[in-house]
Write the structure tokens for this entry.
Amino acid sequence: MFRRMKTALPPIGTSKLLESISPHIPDAFINTVRPGIKGSGRRRAFSAAQLWRVHLLAPLTSTPSFNALVRQLPEQRNWRRFARLPHRERTPDARMLNEFRSALGVSGLRAINDSLVRVLLKHRNADRKSVAIIDSTDLPAATADKKKTAAVGRPGGRVWEPGR
């Protein structure tokens, strides 16, 4: 009864998926959203486009966290090629990714997402009536300080205390 849908993209986690998506990422635009430091001072180790591409690896490879992604990045040649990281030993760490997101802020992330949506809309099938893209930039993170656990032990104590 069900027809198998033909998808235009290869499965998640494959090098073919990364190869098919890579040409559509607007690196020049991303580098203008967060340009490098000009003048005196220490040069940034990675461009904004490289850091953005590392961020894209998380959903494109089904990696559970940025920490796991950073640990696996030196061993994954296809991931480094996608992120345009030429050296196995020089890859961004989790702190760099966090600082990049903080420096961009919500407006920078939205500008990049809007640019990507424009690119996607150019390549969409004319027969389709709608395109849905999830944007979760405003959702709060599910972190340990937001979780609650039942208090154990003393009666009359707090019913809930923060998770550890």
User: Anything to note?
Assistant: Helices lie at 15-21, 27-33, 48-61, 66-72, 77-82, 94-122.
